[in-house]
Each structure stands twice: as C-alpha cells, then as structure tokens.
Amino acid sequence: MESPQETVMRISQELGCSPTSRRAAEYLDQHDEIGHLRQEFLIPKISDLPSSELSLVDGSEDCVYFVGNSLGLQPKSAKKYIDEELEKWAKTGVHGHTDGSRPWAWAENDLEGLMANVVGAKQEEVALMNGLTVNLHLLMLSFYKPTPKRHKILLEDRAFPSDHYAVGSQIRLRGFSPDDSMLLMKPRQGEEILRTEDILSVIEREGDSVALVMFSAVQYYTGQFFDMEAITKAGHAKGCLVGFDCAHAVGNVELRLHDWNVDFACWCSYKYVNSGAGGLAGAFIHEKHMDTVRPALVGWWGHELKTRFLMNNELKLQSGVNGFRLSNQPILLVCPLQASLEIFNKTSMKDLRTKSVLLTGYLEYLLKHYYSKDESNPDKAYIEIISPSEPQERGCQLSICFSLPIRHVFKELEKRGVACDMREPNVLRVAPVPLYNTFTDVYRFITVLGSALSNCNKLQRS
C-alpha cells in the first residue's frame, strides 16, 4: 500500500510541481471524495477568534481549525433541530414528551443505530446517556469486582485525569488503596509512547492480580492508537475484564468494539463526534454480558419502555447497557448529536479513516520537511513529533514538541488564526479532522507555523 509520503510525491510528479507547493494540496482537495462534508459545518472566521490579530492576517478567511480533538465544530443543522424543540416546547408543552418527530421520552434511542455504526457495535450494545465520567463510574461499578488476590486495575500512567480520578475512587470505594491496586504503565526510559509488546508483557506477568484492564483507545497526549484487539485478547487470556475510554477514538479511528470482544467502553461525543460542549455521552456493553452483568445503580430509565409509565415500582430492567440508564436524556443535547451523526451516516468510518491517514501523513511530511532538526544550523527552530510514526498506530492527531518555548509558539499561532491545543509541559496537539479539514488547511498551517516560529526566534534574541 502506498504511504502518504509516496502519494504526495507521486501527485507532485504528475503535476510537475514541488510536493510542498500549494498546488499539491489543492489537487488533493479536488480529488477528496468526502470533501463536500465540510459544507455541513460552521467554520469560525479568523476575525471571530478572540486571540487573532487582524494586522497579521485576513480576518475574513476561515480559521485553520485543528482542535477537533478538544471540541468539534458545530453542524449547521444543530441550531435548526434545537429551534424545533424549543418551538415544540413553547407550543405544546408536556405533549412534546411523546409527540413530534423527536419525542423527548425516547429521542436518543433513534440515534443509537447511527452511533453503533461509528463504534463498530450492534445497536443493542450501545446507549446514549449521561457524561463520560458518569458512564465510566456506572460501568466500573459492575465490571470491577476486586478480590484479595485479584484487585488491580491496569491503566496507562498518563491516562486522562478524569480516568485516573475515577479509577482511584472506584478502588477506594471497594476498600483498597490506589497505591496497591492502581497498576500504572509508563513508556520505556526516553520514549513517549507505550510499546504494544510491553503492554502485553505486563498483562501476562501481572494478570493474575488484575481485575480490570482499563485503557484509553487513543491516548489524549500522544495520539497513540492502542492495539485494542490485542490488549483485549491478552486480558481475557489472564482472566481479566477489559474496558476502554474511547473519548479520543470515536469518530477518529475505525473501532470494532463488538468484533474485538471488548467487555465495555464509554466515550464523550463533543470531540470528533461534534455534539457540542458537554454533549451526550455513550456507553457500550458487549452482548455476551446482556443477561449476566447488571447495573449496581438503577433508575427509572433503565426500566423497559413498554411498562415504564405504569409507575408500579416493579422494576423490569432492560438487558445489557440499556439497563444502565438512569433518567431521560436532555433533548437539547440530543439535537446536536443527531445533527452530527447524520453527517457521519453520509460516509463511513473506513472512508474517513482513509482520508485521515493521508491528511495527517501530509501534515507529518511537511512538518519534517521544513522543521526537522538541522545539525548544521543550530539556531534554526525545530520540532519533534512524539506521536507514533506508523499511521495505523495513531489517530488524526500529531503531538509536536518545539525547540522554542511552547507558550510563545501557541500564542503566535493563535494571533494568526490557527486554533489548536497546547498541553503541559511542552506539546502542541494538532488534529486535522477528516470530516471538515482540508489539505489546504494543512498547507496554510505549515505556512503560518513558519511565520510564528520566525517571530518567536526574534523574541528569543531580543
């Protein structure tokens, strides 16, 4: 299979131009079979960004939005759907619970098939409910069953803080100590990412004491896409249950939660799934647990729909993940999620991933071409990409370290209309999202980065 670099080189030869020229980017956009999906989103203008300086850029241009790994862009139909529900509330009041195209009492159920397609699951294995950390707690209450001999939870050392806190509190809740029961995996000395063989080795060595393997699917800091299938298989071989936080994976990489035999997973929907800040989260429980794993905490919405409103206090719990529902979902959060999932339904995760590999590979190629360390020119600013170099081992995010102070670089990019994400201590997370980003966006980012680094160098010398 042709690598992204080989594709760019081939196209530039066919065009008779440099692979670093804008013509190559424009050609890739012209032949992007899902490029039209960008029109489904609202792209912020540079002039609307709070940190932009219009003396440096044309404020009427679309910004370079490379921060979908933190908050996805707004689908154009989100406002229309929200307005519809506000209008229905105004005109019909309580009747909105059961009437209209989006009855409030079960509106999220109509989206679960679309969500299941994105995560590689059966519809009955997926529920849309709560927030990510709430779902993580609900799932761990049922799947984390520690014993004196098997009480550890294995997770990556640099797990997202919310996961780290949730795991620690679950351990304490069961009467154990995180110091003894939280098994943290660190990369090898001098490395940034975890090697798959090291993860599998720890599971083999420590597995008899591990109750739960609880990893990210895509690591938020480095962008590493873990080998979920191999981790799940290794965990099961040692008698461990295996769950994943898919917050940075859903809508980013191809997932096959059902086929990989993952026990459970949860995710937010406001990053690559574009449901808006605090959007409705998702949860997955494999069908093999349908009749055996029950929620530790139950609520009205876990009761089967047919008899839910009889109000007789005789619980008829839905099987599987649906029984974990606690209460009805906020309709104003259902609306933007519907808007986004309908866009996903116009393509496939396979096609999105194909574009993503090339789009991120193109970014990587240009970054290395212009900003690799030059031993013959020690004064030249340079970058280091800490995300995996193998496209299949990362999502669309590249995490970049700089030879210059990261805060200075970040501010200079913001002034020039680039939206990306800085993470302490020294990483810029750059995420070209295939649903709405273009190859020309990548070209513009590289150009702006050159200007930003040049100004940072001047500030360093002054």
From TrEMBL:
Gene3D superfamilies: Aspartate Aminotransferase, domain 1, Type I PLP-dependent aspartate aminotransferase-like (Major domain). Pyridoxal 5'-phosphate binds at residues 132-133, 160-163, 216, 245, 248, 270, 300, 328. InterPro entries: Kynureninase, PyrdxlP-dep_Trfase, PyrdxlP-dep_Trfase_major, PyrdxlP-dep_Trfase_small. GO terms for molecular function: kynureninase activity; pyridoxal phosphate binding. The keyword Transferase does not apply. Homodimer. HAMAP family: Kynureninase. This is Kynureninase. It comes from Triplophysa rosa (Cave loach). The gene is KYNU.
